[in-house]
Specification:
Length: 90
């Protein structure tokens, strides 16, 4: 994320108002709730994780141990347990 100089996008009155609270520092202005996108909606990451979790559950159901799955997928045993529980409830 890069920053934008306030003087390039805000009227001087707003800049002066903000300066009563903070000046010379970086601040983050969050997006409006209506403009936020759900995590993973702009990439394939969510789909890839769902496929991975399905594979983990399938392997578990075919007898692969949780410890083996943790090693294979570089996850903790607790993460494997969480994935199995989530997939089982689907």
């Amino acid at each position: 994320m890069c920053y934008i100089a306030a003087k390039e996008v805000l009227p001087i009155e707003i800049i002066e108002l903000i300066q009563t609270y903070i000046e010379g520092e970086y601040i983050y202005i969050p997006k409006k709730e209506a403009n936020k996108k759900p995590w993973g909606s702009t990439t394939t990451t969510r789909k890839e994780i769902n496929l991975r979790d399905s594979s983990i559950y399938s392997e578990y159901m075919n007898g692969v141990s949780r410890n083996s799955l943790a090693e294979k997928y570089f996850l903790s045993k607790k993460s494997i347990d969480r994935i199995i529980l989530k997939e089982k409830s689907k």
